[in-house]
Amino acid sequence: MPDTFSENLDLEAIAARVGTPFFLYSADVLRRRIATVKEIIPGGSLQARYAMKACSTKRILEEIRDADLWIDAVSGNEVLRARNVGFACGTELPKILYTSDVFRDNALDVIKETRVLPNIGSPAMIEQLVDAGYRGPIGVRVNPGFGHGHVRECDTGGPSSKHGIWHEATEMVRRAATAAELPVTLLHSHIGSGPQIEEFNRNMARLVDFFADMVPSYPDLEAINLGGGIPHPYRPNTDVIDLAPLGEILRNAQEQLTARAGRSIRVEIEPGRYFVAPSAVLVSRVHDLKTTTDNDKGPGHKFAMVDAGFTDLLRPAMYGAYHHITVHGKSGSGEPVVVAGPLCESGDVFTRDAREFLEPRELPTLERGDLLVFHDAGAYGVQMSSYYNSLGRAPQVWSEAGQFYLISRRELLEDIVGNECQEHLPV
Q: So which residues are the catalytic ones?
């Protein structure tokens, strides 16, 4: 169920200060989500990480740090961003895990500098670590052959997924790691949420059994990471997810895996979306209303033209993801409208179905100047935003105890072109 924390806030006053579009975060909503996970993952032998790819804004990371959660990073720069807000590096107590299928940019240098635990997703990464001079423990991400994300386009497990080392190749990788004197201290898999919590729980239980058969072959193993993917209900009138059954699965997993190993095994999960999705909304202004009429090419539509686009919230254009939309200060029903953005791109439409066809949304009667609120924009909103059409990324505002704080300003042209140069490359 989309969180409605923004309904009683003066969005017009914020818009007058920072303009539109802008992202607005709720400290209360984020902290409630963190608390529900900590109830079932208290730390110690059961540990929760935050998949910071969902949103790596500094203020969010500070809340995660203060809650004693750990980090899953997927780039060298994510590792550095986590370290910069106070997460400890090192492999003995790996509060930052670096998970990747490819070492890109500064990744190998960051691993050596920070001694963060590398969690490899491709076999050749063993040789690449050795060639780079790394000597230390590693994690291995395994594709167990099943699982998928909250939509089919998010393919995180199974034969069509690019992620991880195919389960039939893990013994080869184990032998290669042993020969390279890189002890495997963590096994990892991320099979995605599936569309419902029941499917997620079944897949998690299945994954525990999968790893139980592998544990005896890894004498240095300290932890099993079962990935993230706790579903978040984006649509209205959906039930609140009960995490208690997942907690029971994880407690049983820790006991089962410990028994198989003959020593204590830490069990980890790493939600990202679940923590932050409901903690932010994207606020946009209606600039115009226009209509098309039926012809032999298709039905006509009423379009609400807003100033937010897929540069701000990519998910609807990327795979038809649903975000609940409300009109600030208005209720009731009007007529179906297609909500579209300012970009010079036909895909810049927020109201699409799973096949990415136009799906008009019934909203209260709109007027120019109305504020539209896109709910559940905290996960992969800011993080997937871009400079397309040379538009600067939207500002971020933090709300807490009735106060508002600008935590990132609107980006200007100088931010967009600041790294452009013309330097001679003597090759």
A: 344
Beta-ladder partners of 100: 120
Residue linked to tokens 């203020």: 59
Residue 114's φ and ψ, nearest 5 degrees, are -95, -15
DSSP lists the bridge partners of residue 8 as: none
Helix extents (H) in 356-397:
none
- Hey, what's the torsion of the CAs at 101, 104, 108, 111, to 10 degrees? -70
Alpha-carbon Rg for the chain in angstroms: 23
Instruction: Give CA–CA dist 82/56, Å, rounded.
Output: 8
Q: How far apart are CA 261 and CA 17, in angstroms?
A: 58
Residue 13 CB contacts under 8 Å (≥ 6 apart), including other chains: none
Residues linked to residue 165 through DSSP beta bridges, in sequence order = 142
CB under 8 Å to 233, separation ≥6 — which residues? 1, 239, 240, 241
Tokens for 352? 């699409």
How confident is the model over 263-292, as pLDDT tens digits?
A: 999 999 999 999 999 999 999 999 999 999
5-59 tens-digit pLDDT = 999 999 999 999 999 999 999 999 999 999 999 999 998 999 999 999 999 999 9
Tokens at residue 138, please? 């590693």
pTM: 0.94
For residue 390, count other CB atoms closer than 10 A to its CB.
9
- Report d(CA 52, CA 358) in Å as an integer: 31
> How many CB atoms sit inside 10 A of residue 65's CB?
18
Instruction: Please state, as a whole number, how many other Cβ atoms lie within 10 Å of the Cβ of residue 107.
Output: 24
Strand, coil or helix: what is 97?
strand
Q: Which helix (H) or strand (E) holds 339?
A: strand 335-340
Average pLDDT, the chain: 93
